Amino acid sequence: MNSKFYKMRRNRMISGVLAGLSDKWNFDVTLVRFLFAIFTVANFGIGVIIYIILASILPTKEDIEAEMYGTGPRKRKEAQAIEENDGWFW
């Protein structure tokens, strides 16, 4: 089981932090958003600060899967520099 936290591009409203938490723990997204709103109001907005920090730190689930399974974009091969006067034509 993967123990990393992540955010999701699917089912997101702002940056996907709450969608990622609900996917990780198999909760309904609406329930997690409602609990987050109650937490934020009860703690005078500290939830917004935590959300911003998590949005800037957490990777997306798609990026984690691409790294894990190698399904990301193909990597460019570093080519060797060609000298101007390599002597093959003239």
UniProtKB/TrEMBL annotation:
It holds the Pfam family PspC. It comes from Streptococcus mitis. InterPro entries: Phageshock_PspC_N, PspC. Its main location: membrane. Residues 4-60 form the Phage shock protein PspC N-terminal domain. It comes from the Bacteria. This is Phage shock protein PspC N-terminal domain-containing protein. The chain crosses the membrane at residues 34-58. One of its GO terms (cellular component) is plasma membrane. It is found in: Cell membrane. Keywords: Cell membrane, Membrane, Transmembrane, Transmembrane helix. It is a single-pass membrane protein.
